[in-house]
Design brief:
Radius of gyration of chain A: 18 Å
Order of helices and strands of chain A: HHHHHHHH
Radius of gyration of chain B: 34 Å
Largest sheet of chain A: none
Shape of chain B: elongated
Largest sheet of chain B: none
Strand content of chain A: under 5%
Number of strands of chain B: 0
Shape of chain A: elongated
Oligomer: heterodimer
Strand content of chain B: under 5%
Structural class of chain A: mainly alpha
C-alpha cells in the first residue's frame, strides 16, 4: 500500500513536470477499477467509459492541486463520482431506458456458484445507485468505514447507517428473488 | 416500529461484525441481543444475507481509455503544474522584467549585476523546483546500428 502511494507520487511528479505520457501509467493502473465503479453508479457501460475518460482528463488538469501525501485513487474517485452524479442528474431530466445488462462481478471461480453470482448481479442492478455504490465499495473492494467516509464525503456514523439500510434493501430483494426462484422450481 | 435503542444496537452490531469500532460497548450489544429476539434475528439474517455478496469479486475490465485520454490531453497545451510553481514562475518573470528595465537604464548601463542576476535566478529556481527544461539525463543512448 505504501509502496503504491510512493509510486503514484513519483508518477505524479513526472506528470507535473510535463511528461504527459507518464500519466498513461496511472490511467492503466486504475482504469479497470474506475470503470467498475462508474458502472456501479451508472449501470451502463458506454456512459461509464465516457465518464472515466473525462474524469482522467479532469484529474490530469487538476494534478497541481493534488496533495502528494494522499493516495491517487481515493482523490480521483471524488472526481469520478461527481461526474457520475452529473450524468445521473441529467438522466433524471432525460431518462435513459436502455440500461445495459452489464456484469459488475467477475465470473465465479467455481461454476457451482454461478447461479448465486447471477442473483447477486441482478439484485445489485435493481438497487438504487447510492446503495449499489456503497455495497460494491464495502463488500467487493473491502473498504473500511473510515475509507468509505472519505470516498463519499460523509461522517463515519452516516456510513454506518447508510450501509445498514443498503444491506437491508439488498437482503429484501435477494430473499425475494430466492423465494420466487423456489416457487418456480416447485411448480 | 423499531425503537431508537434497537436501531442503535443493530448498527453497532453490524459495525462490530465488520471489524469496526462500534459506537456501543460489546457488552451493551451482547446484553441487548440476548434480551431482544427481533434484533438478534435481524442481525443474524443481515449477516447471512451478505455472505453471497462477500463471495463475489469485482470484474476486471479490458477496455483501455488511455488512447482517448491521451488524445484529449494532446489538444490541451498546458501541462499540469502545481499552483505553487505558477506563483514562483510569475515572481521570476517579474524579476527578469525588472532586471531588463534596470539594464537598459543609461545610468546603470555597463554594470554586470543586471546581466548576470537573471541567469543565476533562473538556475536557482529550476534547481529548487527540480525542473529540467532541457531534459538532460545521465543515460547514454547509442543511436544507429553498431553491427
Amino acid at each position: 500500500m505504501i509502496e503504491s502511494a510512493m509510486d503514484d507520487m513519483k508518477t505524479i511528479e513526472r506528470c507535473r513536470a510535463g511528461q504527459t505520457e507518464v500519466f498513461g501509467e496511472l490511467v492503466r493502473q486504475y482504469q479497470s477499477q474506475a470503470i467498475g465503479h462508474a458502472l456501479a453508479l451508472l449501470g451502463n457501460l458506454p456512459d461509464a467509459l465516457d465518464v472515466v475518460q473525462d474524469a482522467f482528463v479532469a484529474a490530469y488538469q487538476a494534478l497541481g492541486r493534488f496533495d502528494a501525501s494522499r493516495r491517487f485513487y481515493p482523490w480521483f474517485y471524488t472526481i469520478l463520482r461527481n461526474r457520475c452524479y452529473k450524468v445521473l442528474t441529467s438522466r433524471e431530466r432525460r431518462p435513459v431506458t436502455d440500461i445495459d445488462n452489464v456484469q459488475l462481478l467477475a465470473p465465479p471461480a467455481d461454476e457451482a456458484w454461478g447461479d448465486e453470482s447471477a442473483a447477486v448481479q441482478r439484485v445489485l442492478k435493481e438497487l438504487a445507485p447510492e446503495d449499489r455504490e456503497l455495497l460494491v465499495l464495502k463488500h467487493l473492494d473491502g473498504l473500511t468505514y473510515e475509507e468509505l467516509a472519505q470516498r463519499l464525503g460523509v461522517p463515519a456514523g452516516t456510513v454506518m447507517s447508510r450501509l445498514y439500510h443498503a444491506r437491508r434493501r439488498f437482503r429484501e430483494k435477494f430473499t425475494g428473488m430466492l423465494d420466487d426462484h423456489l416457487a418456480g422450481t416447485d411448480e | 416500529m423499531m425503537s431508537e435503542r434497537c436501531e442503535k444496537v443493530r448498527l453497532a452490531a453490524m459495525a462490530a461484525l465488520d471489524g469496526e469500532p462500534p459506537p456501543l460497548s460489546e457488552q451493551e450489544i451482547r446484553e441487548h441481543l440476548a434480551a431482544c429476539a427481533a434484533c438478534r434475528v435481524e442481525v443474524e439474517q443481515l449477516q447471512r444475507a451478505m455472505a453471497p455478496l462477500d463471495r463475489q469479486k469485482p470484474r476486471v475490465f479490458a477496455q483501455d481509455v488511455w488512447p482517448g485520454v491521451e488524445a484529449a490531453l494532446r489538444k490541451q497545451t498546458a501541462p499540469a503544474q502545481p499552483r505553487r510553481e505558477v506563483y514562483v514562475f510569475a515572481v521570476l518573470g517579474l524579476f527578469l522584467f525588472a532586471c531588463k528595465v534596470l539594464g537598459v537604464l543609461p545610468e546603470l548601463g555597463g554594470n554586470w549585476p543586471p546581466k548576470v542576476l537573471p541567469l543565476v535566478a533562473a538556475i536557482v529556481v529550476f534547481s529548487v523546483l527540480k525542473q529540467n527544461p532541457f531534459h538532460i539525463t545521465g543515460n547514454l543512448k547509442l543511436e544507429g546500428d553498431l553491427r
